[in-house]
Design a protein that fits this description.
mainly beta; 132 residues; three-stranded antiparallel β-sheet; single chain; 5% helix; seven-stranded mixed β-sheet
């Protein structure tokens, strides 16, 4: 079981599936939405994920993407794509223990900021994850 929460603790979530697609995303939308140079995400089946406390706010960040966040503290929690309706991406650092799910690659590395140097030896993909 994976569990997590927002910064202020108003929202809690859980997922009873193994994480996949563990990545550090460098796309401009993730950067702008988080105010950070990259965002670490992992994917679980949509049916395995649920909020157990509180109600999120949501917004469309692109023609296919919807993000959820805490309306009180602003913590970005999930990303859902209409292109992949059976999955949900969860922000790794909202985990109770983010060390449990480290990134396994970098996505959208072609648009990473020039002052972010990738020295962790992980695969880096120019765009979306290699497996779809």
């Amino acid at each position: 079981m994976l569990t997590g929460h927002c910064q202020c603790g108003q929202l809690r979530w859980e997922a009873d599936a193994l994480p996949t697609h563990e990545t550090a995303c460098h796309c401009s939308v993730c950067r702008r939405c988080s105010g950070a140079p990259l965002v670490a995400w992992f994917t679980v089946p949509r049916a395995s994920f649920r909020f157990t406390q509180g109600t999120t706010s949501r917004f469309r960040s692109s023609e296919h993407g919807t993000r959820s966040f805490c309306p009180t503290c602003g913590t970005q929690l999930t990303f859902e794509s209409s292109r992949l309706p059976e999955e949900i991406d969860v922000s790794t650092c909202s985990l109770d223990d983010p060390e449990r799910v480290p990134p396994r690659d970098h996505t959208f590395a072609a648009t990473r900021l020039s002052w972010v140097q990738l020295a962790d030896g992980l695969p880096a993909y120019a765009g979306a994850r290699a497996d779809g």
